[in-house]
Amino acid sequence: MATKVAAHYISEKVSNVRWLPEQLQQTERFVTGSWDMDNNYVRLWRLHANPYAQEVQHTPRCNDKVAMDGDVTGLEFVNEDTLAVSCADGHLSLLKVHRAVEEDQLERMERSERLHEFKCSQKSAPCTAIDIYGNDIATVGEDGCVNVLSAHNLKQVKRTIDADSISLLSVCFVNQHQLVTGNRMGVIRMLDVRVDSTGQQDISFAAASQDPKNSNFVSAMATHPMQQHILICGSEEGSITVWDLRNFEYPASYLSAHNSPITDIGYHRQDPSKLFSAAEAGEVWMWSEKKQLIDMSKNDGNSAWLSGNRVRSLVNVDGVLTDIRNPVNSFDVHGSRLICGSDKEVIYIADDIF
Amino acid sequence: MSEEAVPIFEISDSLATRCGNTLTATFVPGSTKIALSVYRPIKWSSRDTPSDTAGEDPVVISIAQESTLYKEPLLRSLLSETNGTFVTLQTLVQEAKGTKKSAEYLQISRAYRSIIRFCLEKLDHGKKTPEVQEDEWRLEHCTKATKTFYAIECMWHLFEILYLQQQQTSQVIVHHLLEWVRFHYPNTEDQATDLLLMAEEASECDSYWLTLRRLIMLGQLEVPRAILLQNRKFNQAAFQAAEQVLKTMPVYQDGYALHKFNSQWEYWHVDLDRKLAAQTFAAEPQLELIMQLVAGSNKHWDAELVNSQDWYEFLPGYLLYTKPTCKPFELRIATTHWLNRWSVLRPEWQMKQLSRMVLQLMQHDIKLFIYDAQKLNDSHWFSTHLIDLIYHTGQFKSYFDQQNVDLAALRHSMVFEYGSFLMASRNHWQLAIDYLDFCSHEGAAAIELLLPRIPLRSERQAFKVLELAKQRGLVTVEQDICKVLSKRAHSDQRYGSALEWAIRSKDVLLVTSLADFILKNYSHTGVIFSPDVLRSIGPRMFISPRLVFLCKYFEFYELYRQRDFVSAAEPLINLLASKITPAYFWPSLLIDAMPLLNSEEPKLFINETLAILQHLEMELVPLIERNKLNTAKFDNQTSKTIFKDYRVENVEEFVELMRLSCARNMVRATIIENRGPPT
């Protein structure tokens, strides 16, 4: 089926967008977070069938919004109706979604203490990314700290690790106890949430780069939903580095992809053979493994992503959105529907992407 | 939009009354703004001295917030959406160099209009929400915006019909004009719908005939016919005849031969005149009046016109009944006649801005129209986009040449001003860039000036600005931003971050000064800042020799700290021989050699010991000597302040100790090395 893309202007620069989790059906609701506005909001939207135009099937309508005290920098669902939101003022909030027949509601449940601050000036440091594992929420900030909190109690921080002396831009849980962080120099560190800053083993590796004399920050990371030892990193120069976390010596694969910094990267939640990447220049690409080429009988847990130079021949690249000329900050896929938000105050909804 | 209301400004301030209570105003250069000040204007160039009344009264400082229409969230989307269309137009022009693509231009024009219409719809919808209803400021703003953009849409539509569309289809414009009027005067149609729904009872309604007349004058035939069909007396002869006339009226369609149509229409018109003369409709005076209107009888039209809302409301309708094949160039004459008639009928009527601009369009007075368009309260949104479109279509080239208007320059300055305006209003900077991109050198220069001035509140935003600079190859902008961030991090004692930003800025001096800072701090305190950053700098260190030294020293330091002295010896000797050691670091470096020389197990060979001794005598001792000379000249300096290390009190003493250690180690090493089998 041909992909249909509809653009909706919502008068807010979108920093994050997420579909509401829905078990058995195509979800009709999503949340967006804004940044660089006079007042920033997390908004809850719902798709309504569009009775007028033939080409555009749905139009989104804002059902509820919650004001935030700074740019929204991370948006992640803890469970079906609890949403964790990180902000540039260094705080983490939990929002609750009340689904209803007519108007859904969004409500702030809890707000953490200030998690990130610059030690000298005592000013708040922007929280830059969050990730969720079960009920644990990990936040990283420009102060180089990692905080792990439980979604049941935001008032108490379970663990604070002084991971880095420069700002961290991305975080990703590898398993229940370990997480990886990416910093502005392109160094990825593996941290154990069970031990404090002083007891951390120093496991670090640098993202590959075309020109090692230039800095190449790691802006987005994701692990394979089934094989969690596969770590995918998107970087400033637009390349994708794949690591096999069982072997830190060298990257498993290195792919030069976009021509601009990668802003978001992630696997399809239900179908891990598909990976999506979004870039600053306004591109969203879909990477799908070619099933027929991978011999399942000989395949002992090795993924196409770990096959070094051969990745290009085992994986197909399709542009879902290309040439939209404005930075795509975040995307999310549910079923065959992709949504992404950009700086020109547009959200794009692409139907039937595969 | 009336020009007669003179705005009144007032600043009430008790302090100002002491100074004669004067209000001064100056025009802000390069814009349409006025700066008001109580007493006298203070600018960046004014001298900062206490005034006569200093300290007597409390000073009230009020900061004026600049308000634009686009503060309203509903209008923000208009800006970003039109930005998309603007860019599409620019790329379209670039792709199709030389070839004329009037169909595409028409598409673009329609896209702009649909954006305005959608926005009007949103505003209308938004005004009804409780959020806006409770906020007086927003409500007022929405109402203002609706008025402005309604007018803009009206004019843009007319412009499209008269100057863009006619290229596409035939020259006959009456039916397009009818459509235009119909959209902008929807009231009559609403009433007609009511009448249709009332069916037979409609004729008892007070406004029945009035509405019918209005419909006819708006040039609509189908709806009046449908309403008349429902009339109880429809079976009567007069009604039947009227129906016959309305049904048979020839309507021009594209591709029809013009002379054939004209003869048909003439025949129909003569037939109608004859029927009127024969008193066919006399039984129904109201119906007869309608038929007189259809026949274009001036007397009857004049009677109706007295009640119309604006001069152009019924002009297209009148043209339909009197000159159905009117062409754009004939419209000018028709308009002039019509307006003369109108001003006789309504002498007291004042021409508003919208009406005047419509007139300018119909009279082909584009120059004045553009002049007036710039006076609209929309921050030049309309004039910029329209002029840009006009420029690209290339249709008015000869006209503007005649008028002595340099269209390219005009378009250039409009786009430039609009882009600068967007840049100045917080958080529109990403849109502004697109406009400035398309006005040649000045735009590029403006981008270069304005990009580093965007207030950065987070690194995320900084990276976005850096990316924009990178795409345009603005290296200095990139460097400036990185330098600012480096300074910011440094003053916040985040030295690792400062160093990383400095490396990104590629400014050798800045990197060197930061490396110096870290080295000096180490020799004073023994603490190395942000070891994790130093560990992962890698090939990036080659930007500055000082940074190379720092990183290499750090390598040694780590081995040294792990008590791996044998491996540590090599980097130390390399550092000593490297010739990039900064003068102030010599003591620290040689002090580091001391434990290696004095260790129980000898760690250094003869040659290496010799090298150390050589550096001690050739580098450190002359330094101390030179410093002594300086100290003699300026007695506020002592050797301590220059050569400071946390491990050594007095440098002279240390030099002596060092010489002894070298001698001792040399003796040990000579014995050990000479003990081996002779080679």
Automatic annotation (TrEMBL), chain A:
<dbReference type="InterPro" id="IPR036322">
    <property type="entry name" value="WD40_repeat_dom_sf"/>
</dbReference>
<protein>
    <submittedName>
        <fullName>GH18341</fullName>
    </submittedName>
</protein>
<dbReference type="GO" id="GO:0031080">
    <property type="term" value="C:nuclear pore outer ring"/>
</dbReference>
<dbReference type="Pfam" id="PF00400">
    <property type="entry name" value="WD40"/>
</dbReference>
<keyword id="KW-0539">Nucleus</keyword>
<keyword id="KW-0853">WD repeat</keyword>
<keyword id="KW-0677">Repeat</keyword>
<dbReference type="InterPro" id="IPR001680">
    <property type="entry name" value="WD40_rpt"/>
</dbReference>
<dbReference type="InterPro" id="IPR015943">
    <property type="entry name" value="WD40/YVTN_repeat-like_dom_sf"/>
</dbReference>
UniProtKB/TrEMBL annotation, chain B:
<keyword id="KW-0811">Translocation</keyword>
<dbReference type="GO" id="GO:0031080">
    <property type="term" value="C:nuclear pore outer ring"/>
</dbReference>
<comment type="function">
    <text>Functions as a component of the nuclear pore complex (NPC).</text>
</comment>
<dbReference type="GO" id="GO:0006406">
    <property type="term" value="P:mRNA export from nucleus"/>
</dbReference>
<dbReference type="GO" id="GO:0045893">
    <property type="term" value="P:positive regulation of DNA-templated transcription"/>
</dbReference>
<comment type="similarity">
    <text>Belongs to the nucleoporin Nup85 family.</text>
</comment>
<keyword id="KW-0906">Nuclear pore complex</keyword>
<keyword id="KW-0813">Transport</keyword>
<dbReference type="GO" id="GO:0006606">
    <property type="term" value="P:protein import into nucleus"/>
</dbReference>
<keyword id="KW-0472">Membrane</keyword>
<comment type="subunit">
    <text>Component of the nuclear pore complex (NPC).</text>
</comment>
<dbReference type="Pfam" id="PF07575">
    <property type="entry name" value="Nucleopor_Nup85"/>
</dbReference>
<keyword id="KW-0653">Protein transport</keyword>
<keyword id="KW-0509">mRNA transport</keyword>
<protein>
    <recommendedName>
        <fullName>Nuclear pore complex protein Nup75</fullName>
    </recommendedName>
</protein>
<dbReference type="GO" id="GO:0031965">
    <property type="term" value="C:nuclear membrane"/>
</dbReference>
<keyword id="KW-0539">Nucleus</keyword>
<dbReference type="InterPro" id="IPR011502">
    <property type="entry name" value="Nucleoporin_Nup85"/>
</dbReference>
<dbReference type="GO" id="GO:0017056">
    <property type="term" value="F:structural constituent of nuclear pore"/>
</dbReference>
